[in-house]
Amino acid sequence: MESLEKKDTLSPDEKREFLHLAAELAEKMQGIITPDEERRVKSLCRKSMAMHASPHDSHDMPKAIMALRAAHLFADSIDRDHNIILAIILYPLLEDDIADITSLRKEWGEDVASLLVGLSAVQRFSNKNNAVNQDNFRGLMLSLADDIRVIIIMIVKNLTLMRAINLHPDSQWVRDVAFEANCLYAQLAHRLGLYKLKSELEDLSLKYSNREIYSQIAHKLNETKRSRDAYIKAFIDPVKQKLEEAGLKFDIKGRTKSISSIWGKMRKQKVDVSGIYDLFAIRVIIDTPPEKEKSDCWMAYSILTDMYTPNPARMRDWISIPKSNGYESLHATVMGPQSKWVEVQFRTRRMDLVAEKGLAAHWRYKGVKSDSTDQWMNNIRDILESADAGPMEMMRHMKMEDYEKEVYAFTPKGDLFKLPAGATVLDFAFRIHSNVGAHCTGAVVNGAHRRITYKIANGDTVEILTSSTQTPKLDWLNIVVSQKARNKIKQALNEEAQKLADLGKELLERRAKNRKIEIDEPTLMKLIKKSGYKFVNEFYSDMATEKLDVSRFLQQYVDTVAAEEEETRISAGEFQLRPAEEPQEKKRDVLVIGGKSINGLSYKFARCCNPIYGDRVFGFISSEGTVKIHRIDCPNAANIRERYPYRVVEVEWSGKTGDTLMASIRIIGNDDLGILANITSIISKEMNVYLRNVAIDSHDGIFQGVLTVGVTDQAQLNTVMKKIRTVKGVKDVSRI
User: Are 629 and 604 in contact (CB under 8 A)?
Assistant: First the structure.
């Protein structure tokens, strides 16, 4: 496409807009920007015109008008801040060298100059943006800006540009700007709680990048609204009834998703608008006191999953462990009418208030990658929402301290990588690829040769130099700071050690074969451990380097094998019993679970403790909505009660017996001939008791066994254990 013709002067329409915007801004900033400051700004503008500076940029956008539009947008949407409005207006003059930073600092003060320096630093890399990873470029911007106000100015300037390019003739440039707005500035706006700006950026981005899809979705949303509302009503009406019967006080509400969000779901699910039923997010907001928040949310969740089949893989529990940004909610995805998956969110009034105010960053829970500045960004968002004296004034002294923990550097091709602060050329090489790091000899940084110890600075362009003869060294661990580089260096050093160990193992096997000695692996391992080695590779490495005499070790091995053969005898440890088929669980209502509101939930007996009739038990509501029954003294009971007390329900036996349940018994005794046969004989003679499985371990004349038996209740199990204790040689019998 031919380059656009540059204009030397503003058109009549542009002049009228410039004068109108300037007059409106002066009125809007009355009492904030003084008449003297207004006079000095106008003087600089006249100086710009006298120096014949082009009033348009390379894409024919009027620079002064765009600055005034951005100043208006900032004042209307965020804050009428004195220094920021001046910085927005003055920046084109600095960019065109009409005024230098020294004179601007002297005339307008250190804070305005600092904002202008931050804007210059950020825009220095904007021409590389389309070629780099957007998450890393966002981090580079934040680290270079050093002031969050600079980032907010950049968001406003980008939205101003997006509004202005609707009919621009350079379609490729428009698509590039739309891509940058969606991937970079919309995400930053969302982090900062500037939701209105973020939504407009995303919708305009979709409009410019795929105008046809944008128009189709908007049209179809209007067409399908009635049927969509009817489906959601059919879904929530029975849920509402059940929740009311359980005595819960609640509201159910929904919100319409943006067009860009709907388009994202259409692509992911490969459906059209009619196939997406979460165009409205269904939320159940429960009114409950703080001490019952979690238990009531889980009760509502259990009721829903009892009515509709849940998808456990898509269950999200952010009330047990809230997100780092404070977001709390319990999400369930269930199969609704017409076999459609529907997501329902359960939260309390307090949780909903936190989320709606933006104190919990919505961008995190929608899947956007997080970084180390989550809490810092939340604090900034709080200031934007609640500052009485002007949020920008409060942000004036807040610096980007968290980004001092990271550094960003480019490859010659324009790819951008994030590294921890203090990272060296060697870290950068391993960040690119393990092989590049392993053969790194140095780098060319910004055109100058540097050693592997050179520390990377923000914005550096680094070209790694390699050699095929270079290999990782032990002292490299003192040069790198990134965990990836350390792990790869250790891995390479371990691989070298493994090669040496393989040589030692091959030497031992060859000598053994020459002497016609068959190596038994367990016996060899015992002898290596007896020789004082904690790791087998250390043993083989010493053998390869001749620190160990192979012939002498083989003679020790032969002597050890001969001694073990003399002690060999048949013991209970050789006895194995094939497990019987697990009986089908009988569907009898032998338990009473919780209160009336959740009666009838399905339950299972926990395998970790195998409760039987008569045990003191409790119930735990699993993510599938099933109640799992545990013994009070279950090994996992303390952890469950400590972490999830609101998911624990009271359980009692109903008085109905007859079901056969599994119980495990641990037996310790002398490894005497026939002792196991005596124990199994007792069990086989007991009425309605059967042996399901046996596991035996014997050592130094003592055996320890675990028997799994089927019994009907605790009394029957106690009888079996009492009879086993009478067997000669049995030292201890206990239930697991």
Answer: yes
